[in-house]
């Protein structure tokens, strides 16, 4: 999910060419107060062309900022996939956004409920109430984390090892899995360090994240590559499923495949990987 400052028209134009799986137009941290109105106008004008290339989301200003209604009425229109909600501290923040979204949908001719919500868990208070936040609206199927604000509230620097955000990562990815949601990892802030991005993205995938926010077009390709099952992954998954189904037909509950034991949980994981690979292939072709 590629963040693009909505007040930077050159970046908006380039975003459609990056092969990002989603584009997030940023009204919040990347846009200074004096340029919020111009960012709304630019985002609304760019929405049709961007939506033709990838699902488009907008990160609005938080519901306590007093700016959210104007953000939504500017950009909620056919083609907007969802809204990223920054810094929710309690479930009421999601419910308030839901009400404002419904108002904007009705005003713009969008079917109420079509625009999704992606909570951005990025504060200690938000983490403590994360499960309630994720269940506060049926618009939510994806959640995400933000490291920089979280670390700022902890009063620590974010290091490359991810020490300060380890609890945030593991907690949110576990909650997402428990409620059959996808979790999106925080951006890697060093846009000049692709090796660091690759290492962090591999770790995020290994613990259960299904995607990652990125800040620069050059981060898109390595991130996509890491989250895409490799041909070897796909071949192994197919072999596992085939062997397990054959074993089941013989009345057996597990089977050895190239020295590995494959039983029901491993077969389920293999089927999920194949389904994800098929979705990715369909999206990119």
Summarize the structure.
This protein is an alpha/beta fold and 285 residues long. Helices cover 49% and strands 14% of the residues.
Strand and helix map with partners:
Elements: E1 2-5, H1 9-15, E2 23-26, H2 36-51, E3 56-59, H3 68-75, E4 80-86, H4 91-108, E5 116-121, H5 124-128, H6 130-134, E6 142-145, H7 147-154, H8 166-178, E7 182-185, H9 194-206, E8 211-212, H10 220-227, H11 231-249, E9 255-257, E10 260-262, H12 264-284
Parallel strand pairs: 1-2, 2-3, 3-4, 4-5, 5-6, 6-7, 7-8
Antiparallel strand pairs: 9-10
Properties at a glance:
285 residues, alpha/beta, eight-stranded parallel sheet, two-stranded antiparallel ribbon, 10 strands, globular
Give an account of the 3D structure:
The longest helix has 21 residues, at about 265-285. The chain is globular. It contains 12 helices and 10 strands. The mean pLDDT is about 95. Strand 3 (about 55-60), helix 3 and strand 4 (about 80-85) form a beta-alpha-beta unit. The strands form 2 sheets. Strands 1-2-3-4-5-6-7-8 form an 8-stranded parallel beta sheet. Strands 9-10 form a two-stranded antiparallel ribbon. Helix 1 runs parallel beside helix 2 (about 35-50). The protein has helices at about 10-15, 35-50, 70-75, 90-110, 125-130, 130-135, 145-155, 165-180, 195-205, 220-225, 230-250, 265-285, and strands at about 1-5, 25, 55-60, 80-85, 115-120, 140-145, 180-185, 210, 255, 260. It has about 280 residues and is α/β, with parallel strands linked by helices.
